[in-house]
Here is the input.
Amino acid sequence: MKALLLLGCPEVPVQTGLALYIGNTLKAQGFEVICAGTPSAVNLMRVADPKKVYIESYMNIDKCIDQMAEGTFDVDLTFGFIHKDSGLQYLATIAALSRSTPVAVVFGREAEPLGKEVGESLDGVHVIWAKAVHNPLPLKKKLDKIGEWATLVRDQG
Here is the structure.
């Protein structure tokens, strides 16, 4: 199975650490982990994981969307990192183009209202949120409750 980490602007510090944590968990559970993001977000991830221990491949977020629209790329599970409206738009686009199960990881100072907006805007999305800016532990605790993440994957049969 393939999982996508969808990263927007990396201005909120917890994004990179949480993405690496999720990548580690997904890889340990047998997923091929792909990261698509803005150039800055992808560069931060590459610097933090130079040996590709957690993330197997990287791509520009626009290229990812183009390939999904063309039908040449898809995944089973997508984690969209959201701390402002543009993150919601990216995840909504992927959710419309992909067969994957969308998971919204909502963080930042406005996490609660943004998490509610995500839940109301996207059908079938799993929303995990916490007011996390510098400290990733509140979100990590919620992510740990998922257990086996393959259980989130929609039945494709």
The first strand starts at residue 2 and ends at 7. Residues 14-28 form the longest helix (15 residues).
